[in-house]
Amino acid sequence: QVQLAESGGGLVQAGGSLTLSCAASGSTFSSYAMGWFRQAPGKERQFVAGIRWSSGYRYYADSVKGRFTISRDNAKNTVYLQMNSLKPVDTAVYHCAAPGGLGAELPRYPYQFHYWGQGTQVTVSS
Questions:
Q1: To 5 degrees, how large is the angle CA 54–CA 58–CA 59?
Q2: 3-23 core/surface letters (b: 16 or more CB in 10 A; e: else)
Q3: Dist CA 124 CA 89 (whole Å)
Q4: Cα–Cα distance measured from residue 109 to residue 46, given in angstroms and rounded to the nearest whole number
Q5: What residue ranges of the chain have pLDDT lower than 50?
Q6: What integer pLDDT is reported at residue 29 of this predicted model?
Q7: Residue 31: its pLDDT value, please?
Q8: Per-residue pLDDT tens for 43-54?
Q9: Distance between terminal CA atoms of the chain?
Q10: N or C: which end of the chain has fewer CB within 10 A?
Q11: What does R_g of the chain's alpha carbons equal in angstroms?
């Protein structure tokens, strides 16, 4: 079983920055990729960014390209999401997720992920 734990959310003014962390633990965590999603009230869960563990290849939703950066620390089994130039529309609960096994090369849809963290709230004020 894999456990994912997010941290780093909070309240920030528009234009500000936050860094989220997602620590993975459990039975020999060996997922090939990790992703960040967000969900605002009344809206569907939305892909934000993904990274492949081995190569470090990164991919993003168009809405965050150039503002958000995903990275990973293999030794710590931790993935980060650096968020800059935050906007009120970025307000949401942010979740990290991992696929349950081999699947799409660059997973970006919720159904492609098996393990989910509880989420951390990010609120951007105008």
A1: 140
A2: ebebebbeebeeeeebebbbb
A3: 8
A4: 8
A5: none
A6: 58
A7: 76
A8: 999 999 999 988
A9: 40
A10: N
A11: 14
